[in-house]
């Protein structure tokens, strides 16, 4: 049986169902409203697994699901060397969000990563500790800052309400997902001008480590035909 | 995979060689407080070390190297001069399955001695003699020369500090140098930033920009704004001086020839003379220990991409296979002892050997 992991609630689930539905693959939750089980119609041999979007990267990596829909930000952040563990099969064109670095709008001297690096050096010299950046995207943010030669910063973990950490003095800057920038502005933050760390969208992935036996391969071929996609490259 | 018993045997042999060279054996904890390492190396160490949590001590790291705990132990209660040897596992986090070892033995030798050139030569000669039968290719360098050259530039202290801060990040260093030397055009973002900063006094601009949140104060911001405006007025580093730094970045020659070349450029950049004398004294000391300095490869940029603490002599001993990490490596880290010594410091140099690679090369596997 080919298992496909799909976000278990919210807009991401609905949009995923819509995307597959528009391509002749009907997905639906079954049972009562609180029960996380689902069904797939229109293509044989496929089982729907409803999961938290945040757990889908891990389940893909472990090969417990063959396919999964989740944000590309989560896959790139949670999986070390993600290209070796999953293949991007299709970008679904919704769930768009940018992972950005934001600093207080009143920092008139900081516009780019270059400025952030210089500000971090001065901040450390004056305050005795590294400039703190609050985020939950540790791998993506650290890789980005290392690649761009930013030093004298420290990442502090923030799993929610990240925009508030600056005001609460637990961080000097943040790195977080934003779609409109509205929450950032409301918290008196601005986005650095040299581009987002990652432009995320909902993406359909195929797991390298899942068991791809005959039944799974033929279900995959059936699904590919319905979706009008070439087979994923492993 | 070379078997672990054979690796352990190589490690013990190396360790014994270091002890008979006069080193005192030292042991360090495997669990190290993360704070010290993070403070020294920054966030990058988090990507390279295993971090774990102790319910009472907070964040801990599995020892990513021995240098820091050995320096700490020496600064706490060591007499000088001192020679130490150690043997044990270090742990390096890897981001891919086929990457380098996550856990491997290191055997090291560290010298805390104020006679720096002799100590450099002692460490290099001891380690290369111990591995002489493997015909490893040596690579050497001296970060101190590049640092002295940067300090000697006739430009603002701020620019020199910025260059020194990024000396271990070659790409970034190069970008800064290109900008300070007027070789790279000013980025559009920087130009518009400067225009804005010049339009009004900083405190007024800060107020206009919105409510100030966070610990970084209006004074911090105004200070950097002033620094940016000042830097915009700073003339580019003179082409002749910049050319000397570019020359140093690419200098690669046998040690004796490199020394002659450096002596040739010293009159144009007198600030590097002490570093060149130290280089010359080191070559004499190496020669006295039987090292062939006529053919010893030297690269002024060698060792700039390692963890950032080497600030003088650096070396590696490499196997023929370019995919293997260095069989041995080391260098001088005087500044690190000052950071960890809380006001005290002592010149220090050391090196490590990876017995796993030695066993593999000896076993012919």
Automatic annotation (TrEMBL), chain A:
GO biological process: L-histidine biosynthetic process
Gene Ontology cellular component terms for the protein in this record: cytoplasm
Keywords tagged on the record: Amino-acid biosynthesis, Glycosyltransferase, Histidine biosynthesis, Transferase
Pathway terms, separated by semicolons: Amino-acid biosynthesis; L-histidine biosynthesis; L-histidine from 5-phospho-alpha-D-ribose 1-diphosphate: step 1/9
Domain ATP phosphoribosyltransferase catalytic: 53-210
Keyword Ligase: no
MF-aspect GO terms: ATP phosphoribosyltransferase activity
Coiled coil: none
Record's catalysed reaction(s): 1-(5-phospho-beta-D-ribosyl)-ATP + diphosphate = 5-phospho-alpha-D-ribose 1-diphosphate + ATP
The protein's Enzyme Commission number: 2.4.2.17
Enzyme class: transferase
General function of this protein: Catalyzes the condensation of ATP and 5-phosphoribose 1-diphosphate to form N'-(5'-phosphoribosyl)-ATP (PR-ATP). Has a crucial role in the pathway because the rate of histidine biosynthesis seems to be controlled primarily by regulation of HisG enzymatic activity.
Protein name, entry field: ATP phosphoribosyltransferase
Lineage: Bacteria, Pseudomonadati, Pseudomonadota, Alphaproteobacteria, Rhodobacterales
Automatic annotation (TrEMBL), chain B:
Residue intervals of the Class II Histidinyl-tRNA synthetase (HisRS)-like catalytic core domain: 11-249
Domain of life, source organism: Bacteria
List of residues binding L-histidine: 65-67, 92, 106, 110, 304, 309-310
GO biological process: histidyl-tRNA aminoacylation
InterPro entries reported in the protein's UniProt record: aa-tRNA-synth_II/BPL/LPL, HisRS-like_core, HisRS/HisZ
GO molecular function: glycosyltransferase activity; histidine-tRNA ligase activity
Keywords (A to Z) from UniProt: Glycosyltransferase, Transferase
Any one Gene Ontology cellular component term annotated for this protein: cytoplasm
Protein name: ATP phosphoribosyltransferase regulatory subunit
Gene coding for it: hisZ
